[in-house]
Amino acid sequence: MSKHAPQPVSLFDTRLLKAALVESFKKLDPRDLWRNPVMLCVELASVITLVTFVASLSGHNPEPAWFTGQVSAWLWLTVIFATFAESLAEGRGKARAASLRKSRTEVTAKLVARAEFNAPFKVVPAQELKKGDLILVEAHEQIAGDGEVVAGAALVNESAVTGESAPVVRESGGDRSAVTGGTEVIANAIVVRITANPGETFLDRMISLIEGAKRRKTPNEVALEVLLIALTLVFLLVCLNLRPLTVYSVTAAGKGSPVSLTVLVALFVCLAPTTIAALLPAIGIAGMDRLFQKNVIALSGRAIEAAGDVNVLLLDKTGTITLGNREAVEFVPVGGHSEREVAEAALWASLADETPEGRSVVVLARKCCSLKAEALPADARIIAFSADTRLSGLDTAGCRYRKGASDSIVAFVKGLGAAAVPADLADVVDRIARAGATPLVVCRDGEIFGVINLKDIVKGGIQERFQQLRSMGIKTVMITGDNPLTAAAIAAEAQVDDFLAQAKPEDKLRLIKENQEAGFMVAMTGDGTNDAPALAQADVAVAMNTGTQPAREAANIIDLDSNPTKLLDIVEVGKQILMTRGNLTTFSISNDVAKYFAIVPAMMISVYPQLGVLNVMRLATPLSAILSAVIFNALVIPCLVPLALKGTKFRPMPAERLLISNLFIFGLGGVLAPFVGIKAIDMVLGLF
Q: What's its catalytic activity (predicted)?
C-alpha cells in the first residue's frame, strides 16, 4: 500500500513564471483590477504619470522627462508586480487542477430504473446524469458521478482523487457508502444513486477551488480591504489638499515652486498601503494551496480562517488519539497460575480470531513465551464472538479454551461445574479497567488462568501535539463511546484537557453549542451520518473522504486521506494564513514612516529650506529622493511574494508572545527596511 500527497510546485518553475507573467499583463484590464481597489488607484496614477511623461517630452511640462518617465515606469511595475503575485499563486493552483483534469475522461453510465443488478439499463453520457438517478457500475468501470451506494458492495480504486493506491470497500447501508465520480470499481458491482448535478461534482469543486476561479473573499479579507480602502481615501484627500497648500505657501514665501502633479501622484502611491493590497489575494489563494499539499480540500476560505481562530478542538478517540485497534500488552496470571499457562490458553482461544485484537494476542504469546502459533487442528470447533455470550474461543482435543468479559467467563466456568473463581481475579480486572484498558479473562474448561490486558494504544507524539495546542490557548476535548472510567484513563495518558464519555450524536451537538455560546470557535472531525448534525454546527467541520454523503455535505473541509489527525494540521495552516496576512499588513503600514522622511522634505524644501533637517537619510536631490521611494515601493512587492506564498513560519506559543514577536520583526523591520532600501537606491541613482 502506498500513498502520495500532491507535490509542491516550485516558485521558480520556468513554465509557471512565464505563464504568470503573461497572465499578470492580462490582469491590468481595469475590469479585472476593480476587485482590488487600491491597485486600481495605482493603475490610474500610472496613467496620469504616463501623461505627464508625454507632456515632458513635448515641452508642455517643466519637469525633466527622465524623472517623469522613470516614475511612470516604476508605478506601472508596481501594478504589474501586484498582478504577477496573484497570477503566480493562481498558476500553482492551475497546475494542480490540470493534473486533476487529466484524470477525468469522458465516460458513460448504465442508467437503471430501480436498484437491482438485473434491471434493464440504458447507456447515457455522464454529463446527462442528474441528482437522484440510479446507475449500475460493474467491475473495471468508472463511477460516472458523485453518489452513494444503494445496493451491493465493491472494491473501489480512489487513487485519482486521494492518492491512495490501495482499494477501499464501498457498500450500501453503512458509513462507507459515499463514492466519488472518476473513481473505478475493480471488483464486484454496485448500484449508485447520483447526488450531484453536472458541474457540481466533488472533482469539479476541487478543480474550481484549486484554481481560485470561484474563491470568495473571506470576512477577514473583506474587513482588511475596507481598512485599506479607507486609508487610501485618507491619503488621496491629503494629496489633493497639498497642491493648494503649496500654491499658497509659494505665494506667501515669495520663493520656490508648487508641488507638481507627478510628485503628488508619487506621494500618494508611496503612502497608500500598496504592499499588502498587492499581496492580499495571493495570501488567500496560497493558503488553500498549502492545504491541498496536505491532501485537504477547503470548501470555503471562511473555514480556513475559522481554523486559525479555533479555541476548542473536539477529537474522536479512536483513530485520532489512539491507533484504533486495541493490542494485547501483557498476560496477568491469577489463582497461582504462571504467565506461560495464561499465554498458552490465550493463544488457543485466539487462534481462530481474525480481528486485530485476536492477532495481537497471538503475536504477544509468541513473543513473550516463545509459543508457536500453529495452524488450526483438524478437530477444532470455532466458537465465534457474539453480543449475547460476550466470549469466543476454540474446542480441540477435548479442551475448551475461552476468552471474554469477566462475568461471561465466570458464568461459563461455573456452568461447567467450577466451585469457585480465583480470589484475585476481581482485583486484576478492576486494576486493568481503571488504567483505561480492556480486561479479557482466559480459561480452559472450568479453570480460569488469568487476564489479557488489551490496551487502546495512544499514538506516539500526540501528547506533544496537544501541548503545542495548549500553549496556543486551544482546548482539546476527546469524544468517545467508552465508559467514563476508561475514557478518563485514556484522556490522562493522552493529556487532553477534557473528555466526553459515552457520547451520542445529541451529546456532541450540545457540547458544540455550549462552547459556541460561551464565545469559542469549535472544530471537530467526523465521518458518519450520525456526525452530520455536529459537523453542520461546528465552525470548522472536517469530514473524512471515506465518510458518508451527509457527513461530507455538512462539512466545510474534506480530508482526502481520511486521517482525523489532519485537524491539527488544518489549525496550523489556518493560523499561518492569519499570521501571514497580519504580518504583511504590519510591514506595509510601517513602511510609510521612512517614506515620509524621503518624500515630504523633497517636495517642500524649495519653499521651506528648514525641512532639510528631516532628510535624515541624506538623500542626494529632491528628485532622486522621490524616485528612490517610488522604486523601493515597487521592489518590495516581488521581494515579499515568496513569503506571501509560503506563509509565515508557524511557532506554537501564547498569542501575547506571538504578537510581540511579530510586531518586533515585521513592525520594527517594516520601519527600518525602507531607510536602508531607499538610501541604497539613492546611492545607485547617484552613480548615473
A: K(+)(out) + ATP + H2O = K(+)(in) + ADP + phosphate + H(+)
